[in-house]
Amino acid sequence: MIVVLKVGSPEAEVERLTQEFLSWGLSPEKIIGKHKVVIGLVGETVEMDPLQIQEASPWIEEVLRVEKPYKRASREYRQGEPSEVIVSTPNGSVTFGEHHPLVVVAGPCSVENEEMIVETALRVKAAGAKFLRGGAFKPRTSPYAFQGHGESALGLLARAREVSGLGIITELMDAADLETLAEVADVIQIGARNMQNFSLLKKVGAQDKPILLKRGMSATIEEWLMAAEYILAAGNPNVILCERGIRTFDNKYARNTLDLAAIPVLRSLTHLPIMIDPSHGTGKWEYVPSMAAAAIAAGTDSLMIEVHPNPKKALSDGPQSLTPERFDLLMQELAVIGNAMGRWIVEPAMAAV
Ligand code: PEP
Ligand code: MN
Fold it and tell me: How far apart are CA 170 and CA 185, in angstroms?
């Protein structure tokens, strides 16, 4: 249920109402929008009559029922106003959101050594990326495949952050690593395989680093939004949704099926910012540029692109990684589309190294 307050509602009245809703056994959440204050009510509201709630204060404009199973993640919960995920990085704060410039996240699948991560960071930064991605803990299908360098790779990410000033996005697989990882990560990634690891979602929801929630490879959009709801319900409002391709009947020529229709679908259902990962989405670097361009045209708020200084030698996901040179070129191409969509801040000429 959402309680929309009239413009100019006194702060004391908002506080009084919050206390009243608490006394009814509900969990009120104050949402301050650009124009109005809304109180989100989650709890046993099924039996409640919106008209009865309306009588609680003359300052209530309307009371609306959120029919969707995901309440806090729903577009209605914020009265249609998109949320902004603001991340502070050494180079300044970066905002993910519908009315903000497109944010590009780039870097290798795994952090392999200091030289490669620092080189990649500097190259992707020069091309216009705002975040460096790189896995320290890798979720690999085979237990015999490279598992990531773990904690020591976090140290290398910290070094790359210091040298480049880029924000860091890296994946958390085990709650036991949360504290150490959060010291380095500006945004914590929850990977496709852990999208429904509910205890992990509750833990990252109970801390305040922003979360990048990748879509599970067989997850419906509703399951994905319910996973986001776990994080929001635990108290962390900063969630970015990343589409990274889903399993369909056909994986012969592309690793996954990149669901670009998820962009307008999510836009209509949720206020959360959207990211597209065409690297895992296709599994082949050759297909990354067209899907990245299409994602911008379809209205994504951000992109995640795998870049490796020597993809042929990469310890994971080499076939889908762009070289820094190809990434430079791609950024110049994307700038044209980004500018046309009114979502770019780096001028094409400046994108060249
Ligand atoms: C990754 O980003 O390297 C990764 C493992 O992604 P996903 O969870 O989408 O497979
Ligand atoms: Mn990868």
Answer: 6
Does residue 93 share a domain with residue 47?
Answer: no
Query: Is 238 in the same domain as 134?
Result: yes
Single pTM value for the model: 0.95
Q: What spacing in Å lies between the alpha carbon of 217 and ligand 2's midpoint? A: 14
State the residue range of the domain holding 279: 85-340
Average of per-residue pLDDT values in the chain: 95
Give the nearest ligand 1 atom to 135 CA: 3
Look up the CATH number of the domain holding residue 128. Answer: 3.20.20.70
Q: Is the pLDDT of residue 346 over 60?
A: no
Task: Please report the atom of ligand 1 found closest to the CA of residue 215.
Answer: 9
Total structural domains in the chain?
A: 2
Number of neighbouring beta carbons within 10 Å of residue 259: 18
Which contiguous run of DSSP H or E holds residue 306?
Answer: strand 302-306
Instruction: Please indicate, yes or no, whether residues 246 and 138 belong to a single structural domain of this protein.
Output: yes
Mutate to test the pocket of ligand 1, among 105, 120, 157, 244 (most ligand atoms within 8 A of CB): 244
Question: Is any atom of ligand 1 closer than 6 Å to the C-beta of 149?
Answer: no
Strands 60-64 and 37-42: unpaired
